[in-house]
Amino acid sequence: MFRLHPRLAEDCLRLGRFPLCHLLLMRDASYPWCILVPDREDVREIFQLSADDQAQLLRESSVLSSLLTERFQADKLNIAAIGNLVPQLHLHHVVRYRGDRAWPAPVWGRHAAEPYTEKGLAAVVEKICSGLPSDFVYAAEVLDGRDPEERPR
């Protein structure tokens, strides 16, 4: 049975899931930063996924990448599956700007996470969720008491 790694559960807000991956938002207001986690047990590397799952991961990553780049007007999108601290396969998607506080270096380990304000978090979640495809299933936290048919759009 799939279980999200405790570090990811602590550091992220679960937005919902695509057909293969859970979509998480990193709790760091410094960057729009999403993480895809395939709903598969005991997988540490992309090559350990079946060929169909590898293709689905690429499709979901591409949809998310396009959405983040367009919605947040990114100068660059960093995508990485590092996994040194969290061995569970997860794919980071970090929106980067030439003027962000870590530019041009990678974001990992550069600065402490900047917490979202309630209003800031709501705005980022809405910006992401309003562009997701119809096969995306929203997490209860995102629906916030709304009927699933009233999901963000």
Description:
The chain has 153 residues and is α+β, with helices and mostly antiparallel strands. The protein has one domain (6-142): HIT family, subunit A, CATH 3.30.428.10. It contains four helices and six strands. It has helices at residues 6-11, 51-71, 118-129, 140-143; strands at 12-17, 21-26, 33-38, 76-80, 91-96, 137-138. A six-stranded antiparallel sheet has the order 4-5-3-2-1-6. Strand 2 (21-26) and strand 3 (33-38) form a beta hairpin. The longest helix is centred in the middle third of the chain and has 21 residues, at 51-71. The protein is globular. The termini are far apart.
Which short descriptors sum up this protein?
single chain; 153 residues; alpha+beta; HIT family, subunit A; six-stranded antiparallel beta sheet; 4 helices
Task: Give the strand content.
Answer: 15-25%
Helix content: 25-40%
Q: Superfamily at the CATH H level? A: HIT-like
Give the rounded overall mean pLDDT.
93
CATH level 1 name: Alpha Beta
CATH fold group: HIT family, subunit A
Q: Topology as H/E string?
A: HEEEHEEHEH
| Shape verdict | globular
Task: Give the biggest beta sheet.
Answer: 6 strands, antiparallel
Uncertain regions spanning at least 5 consecutive residues: none
Q: Specify Rg, calculated over alpha carbons.
A: 15 Å
**First-last Cα distance:** 31 Å
What is the CATH architecture term? 2-Layer Sandwich
Q: How large is the count of helical segments?
A: 4
Q: Give the number of domains.
A: 1
Structural class: alpha+beta
Largest beta sheet: strand ordering: 4-5-3-2-1-6
Number of strands: 6
